[in-house]
Write a structure and sequence with these properties.
The chain is α/β, with parallel strands linked by helices and 479 residues long. The longest helix has 18 residues. It is globular. The chain binds N-(aminocarbonyl)-beta-alanine and zinc ion (2 copies). One zinc ion binds next to loops.
Length: 479
C-alpha cells in the first residue's frame, strides 16, 4: 500500500504544477496527475502547496557552550522543526581545542540517535596537529562528512587561528570537502569587549557594541581570500551585514566559488532589541553575530533575492532564561544563541513570498534545495521527484498563526518572533514517508531520524573549485 498526497500543487526550486505524489516506503515513487487512490492511504493536499521539507543547514542541538548546554535536544529540536515544515538539519560537531576530532564526532552521533528527523554534521576544526589531519580524512572517507567548520571568533574557547584555518582549508581541498566559517575577528571582539566592559557597560547592549559589522566584514574577507589563494570553495554561515555581503558579492562576481547563508532572525529582527529596558528580553537576543540595523536587514533581503545569498538557516541554539542569567552582571557571560527552527519557513513565507520578495520556487530554493545542492545531498533531499526521500511539507498558504513561546514546541521560554502573526503554515509534514505533523498534532517518533551521509565532491570537485588567482608557478630559466 502506498501513501498518496492528493490534489495539491507541487512546488520545487524549478517550477510548480498540479500533481499527486505517490510514496512507497521512505521514498517518492511517482509525481503525476490524477493518480487512482483505491486501496492506498491518502493525504489531502487540496488548496495547498506540496514542497520539499525544509533543510536547516545550521543548528546546535544540546550543544555544550559557554559553560552550559543548549536546552533543545535532538529529539525535541527535530520535532519542533516538523511543526514548521523542516525535516532535516545539519548540526555541528564541535571538539574543544586538543580534543580528538573523531571522538567528538562519535559523541555527537550518540547524542543524535534520539533525533526524530534526519540529520548530518559539519565538523568544526578548532586546533591542528597530525591527528586532526588524519581524522579529517577518516571523516570524509568513512563517515559521510563533506564540510568542516571554522570559528574565527570565541577567543580562548573554540576560535581557530589563521594557521589552523590554512591547514584545514588545504586539507579540505585535498579531500573534496567544503569549508565553512563563522566570520568574526575574534581578537577584535575580545579587545572591544574589554574596552566596553571597562567603560562600565555590562548589560546586553554591550554585546552588539563589541561585534560591529566591520569585525564580521574583516573576517569574511580574510576567509574568502584564504579560500581563494588555496583554491577551495567556501560557505559563510550567518551572514548578517553589508560588510560581509559585499565581500561575498565581490568574490562571486570575480568567479570565486563562495556561498552565503542568512538567518531568518537576521532578516527580521533588528538591533533595537539590545536597548530594551527589560534585561531578560535583551539577553535573549544575545547571539553572534548580533542583530543589525534595518539598513543591513534590507541588504540581506536583497542578497537573498539576487542569489548572492543561497541558503536560509536558524543557528537554532536555545538557552533558557535561567541560562542567560549566567551573564546577569556581564554580557560576556551570557550564552550566545537564539531559537528558530520551528518558525523559519513561516516567517520567510510571510515576509518573503507574501511580500513579493521571493517566488514560491525561490522559497523552496532558499529553504531546502540550495542547501541540498551545496552540501551534496540533492536530489535525495530538497526535491519532489521519483527516488527522492519522501520529506515533504504540505503548505497551507492561507493558514495563519501567531508565534509565541507559550505555544511553540521549542524547548526554550522565549521566542524572538513573539507576537508575529504569520500567514503560510505547515499543515502536514512527512519525514521519509511518515506523517509526523498534521494540523497541530505532533506525531514525531524518538529515534526515527536517520544520519544523512554526504559524499565528498569527488569527480565534481574540479568544477566546484574556485578560481585560483595564483598563476601556475614557473621557475625562471637563467641558463
Ligand atoms: O550565538 C550563536 N550564534 N551561538 C551558536 C554558536 C555560533 O556561533 O554559531
Ligand atoms: Zn556562529
Ligand atoms: Zn551556529
Amino acid at each position: 500500500m502506498a501513501t498518496i498526497i492528493k490534489g495539491g500543487t507541487v512546488v520545487t526550486a524549478e517550477r510548480e504544477w498540479r500533481a499527486d505524489v505517490v510514496i512507497e516506503g521512505d521514498t517518492i515513487r511517482e509525481v503525476t496527475a490524477d493518480v487512482d487512490t483505491t486501496g492506498h492511504d491518502v493525504v489531502d493536499a487540496g488548496g495547498c502547496y506540496v514542497m520539499p521539507g525544509g533543510i536547516d543547514p545550521h543548528t546546535h542541538m544540546e550543544l555544550p557552550f559557554m559553560g552550559t548546554v543548549a536546552s533543545e535536544d535532538f529529539f525535541s529540536g527535530t520535532s519542533a522543526g516538523f511543526a514548521g515544515g523542516t525535516t532535516s538539519i545539519i548540526d555541528f560537531v564541535i571538539p574543544g581545542p586538543g580534543d580528538s576530532v573523531l571522538d567528538a564526532y562519535k559523541t555527537w552521533r550518540g547524542w543524535a540517535e534520539k533525533a526524530a528527523g534526519d540529520y548530518t554534521f559539519h565538523v568544526a576544526i578548532t586546533w591542528w596537529d597530525e591527528s586532526v589531519h588524519r581524522d579529517m580524512g577518516t571523516l570524509v572517507a568513512d563517515h559521510g562528512v563533506n564540510s568542516f567548520k571554522h570559528f574565527m571568533a570565541y577567543k580562548n574557547a573554540i576560535m581557530c587561528d589563521d594557521e589552523t584555518l590554512v591547514n584545514s582549508f588545504s586539507r579540505a581541498r585535498e579531500l573534496g570537502a567544503l569549508c565553512t566559517v563563522h566570520a568574526e575577528n575574534g581578537e577584535l571582539v575580545f579587545r572591544l569587549q574589554k574596552e566596553i566592559a571597562d567603560k562600565g557597560i555590562l548589560g546586553p547592549e554591550g554585546h552588539p557594541l563589541s561585534r560591529p559589522p566591520e569585525v564580521e566584514g574583516e573576517a569574511a574577507n580574510r576567509a574568502i581570500r584564504i579560500a581563494e589563494v588555496l583554491g577551495v570553495p567556501l560557505y559563510l554561515v550567518h551572514t548578517s551585514c553589508i560588510d560581509a555581503l559585499e565581500a561575498v558579492t565581490r568574490a562571486r562576481l570575480e568567479g570565486q566559488r563562495v556561498f552565503a547563508e542568512v538567518l531568518a532572525g537576521h532578516l527580521l529582527v533588528d538591533d533595537s532589541v539590545y536597548r530594551n529596558a527589560d534585561w531578560r528580553f535583551a539577553a535573549h537576543h544575545v547571539m553572534s553575530p548580533p542583530f543589525r540595523s534595518k539598513e543591513h536587514q534590507d541588504a540581506l533581503w536583497r542578497g537573498l533575492q539576487s542569489g548572492m545569498i543561497q541558503t536560509t538557516a536558524t543557528d537554532h541554539c536555545c538557552f533558557r532564561t535561567v541560562q542567560k542569567q549566567m551573564g546577569k552582571d556581564d554580557f560576556r557571560s551570557i550564552p550566545n544563541g537564539t531559537a528558530g527552527i520551528e518558525d523559519r519557513m513561516s516567517v520567510l513565507w510571510d515576509q518573503g513570498v507574501r511580500k513579493g520578495r521571493l517566488t514560491r520556487s525561490e522559497f523552496v530554493a532558499v529553504t531546502s534545495a540550495n542547501a541540498a545542492k551545496i552540501f551534496n545531498i540533492y536530489p535525495k533531499k530538497g526535491a519532489i521527484a521519483p527516488g527522492a526521500d519522501a520529506d515533504i511539507v504540505i503548505w497551507d498558504p492561507d493558514g495563519s498563526r501567531t508565534i509565541s513561546a507559550e505555544t511553540h514546541h521549542q524547548q526554550i521560554d522565549f521566542n524572538i518572533f513573539e507576537g508575529m502573526t504569520v500567514t503560510g503554515i505547515a499543515k502536514t509534514t512527512l519525514s521519509r514517508g511518515k506523517v509526523v505533523w498534521h494540523d497541530g498534532d505532533m506525531r514525531s517518533v524518538r529515534g526515527a531520524g536517520r544520519y544523512i551521509d554526504r559524499p565528498p565532491f569527488g569527480p565534481y570537485w574540479d568544477a566546484q573549485r574556485t578560481k585560483n588567482r595564483l598563476a601556475e608557478p614557473v621557475a625562471v630559466d637563467r641558463g
